[in-house]
């Protein structure tokens, strides 16, 4: 690894509200400090950053993760760690449908997933997630990202005023990809966070509830809360607020979990999909 001096970035926005590609960087080489700072700012500006055409080792991915804060460790209970975890460095999670002896080697193997924020059902949700494509199917398995900033800024004032200052209730059934489908196991945890979160780096407010994990609002009757939340979900997932990433081999993608939600489209179960995933630790109730 060499230190690469390059302070001027080629940042190409992908949509009006969310997503940008940073071109011309080979992350096997360590950028200089000024470039790392510029990358961090581009991430804050665009929420989702794509580094195309990378050829990273596991060590490279862990080093790059550290540019954005302290690396997190997977927090699922041990029974949810498939056999493939013994083959990779600590802190890297396999997202894969590849099976050995009939068992997936990674987590979240099949199907689509509704919009969600990583670990919102915990006291310390992840600050950021990085996903690196190692094997991809011919089609499908796209990742969609929705800007929580844009959703908050344009939300119906009547709905926003009713929910402002409220705490939402979140939980997640591990093993389930769709809320209420009956396939989940006992929830690992549940937590409450503000419906609208103030981002600690940008001081902007973002919608911080999602269709997969948010189940109620503290202090509001359940029937009313469900109507309000469904209105927020429908608004937050509008196409104009969403960037859909079609994966290419060697893509490294970074998203800000504090101000965006993400989803996954379905893909053929007969085709292999393998991603390396790392996270950056968040803070306990920083808002």
List keywords for this structure.
single chain, about 290 residues, alpha+beta, 4-stranded antiparallel sheet, 20 strands, globular
Describe the 3D structure.
The chain has 287 residues and is of the alpha+beta class. It has a single domain (9-280), classed as Clavaminate synthase-like (Double-stranded beta-helix, 4-Layer Sandwich). 17% of the residues lie in helices and 29% in strands. The protein has five helices and 20 strands. It has helices at 33-46, 58-65, 148-153, 157-163, 222-236; strands at residues 3-4, 10-13, 20-23, 30-31, 48-51, 93-96, 99-100, 103-104, 113-116, 128-135, 143-147, 167-171, 190-194, 196-198, 205-207, 214-217, 242-245, 252-256, 260-264, 274-280. A seven-stranded mixed beta sheet has the order 2-3-5-18-10-20-6, covered by helices on one side. Mean pLDDT is 90; it is low at 182-187.
């Amino acid at each position: 690894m060499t230190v690469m001096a390059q302070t001027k970035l080629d940042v190409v926005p992908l949509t009006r509200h969310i997503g940008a590609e940073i071109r011309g960087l080979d992350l096997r080489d360590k950028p200089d400090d000024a470039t790392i700072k510029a990358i961090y700012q581009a991430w804050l500006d665009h929420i989702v950053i794509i580094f195309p055409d990378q050829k990273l080792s596991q060590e490279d991915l862990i080093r790059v993760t550290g540019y954005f804060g302290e690396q997190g460790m997977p927090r699922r209970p041990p029974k949810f760690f498939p056999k493939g975890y013994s083959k990779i460095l600590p802190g890297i999670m396999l997202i894969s449908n590849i099976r050995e002896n009939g068992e997936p080697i990674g987590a979240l193997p099949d199907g689509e997933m509704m919009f969600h924020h990583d670990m919102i059902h915990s006291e310390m949700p992840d600050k950021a997630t990085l996903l690196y494509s190692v094997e991809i199917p011919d089609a499908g398995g796209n990742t969609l990202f929705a800007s929580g900033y844009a959703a908050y800024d344009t939300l119906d004032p009547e709905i926003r005023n009713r929910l402002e200052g409220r705490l939402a209730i979140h939980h997640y059934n591990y093993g389930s990809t769709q809320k209420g489908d009956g396939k989940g196991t006992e929830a690992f945890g549940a937590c409450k966070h503000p419906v609208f979160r103030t981002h600690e780096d940008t001081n902007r407010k973002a919608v911080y509830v999602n269709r997969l994990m948010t189940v109620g609002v503290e202090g509001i009757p359940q029937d009313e809360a469900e109507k309000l939340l469904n209105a927020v979900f429908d608004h937050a997932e509008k196409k104009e607020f969403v960037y859909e990433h079609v994966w290419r081999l060697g893509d490294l993608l970074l998203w800000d979990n504090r101000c965006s939600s993400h989803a996954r489209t379905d893909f053929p179960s007969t085709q292999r999909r393998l991603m390396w995933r790392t996270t950056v630790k968040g803070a306990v109730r920083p808002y």
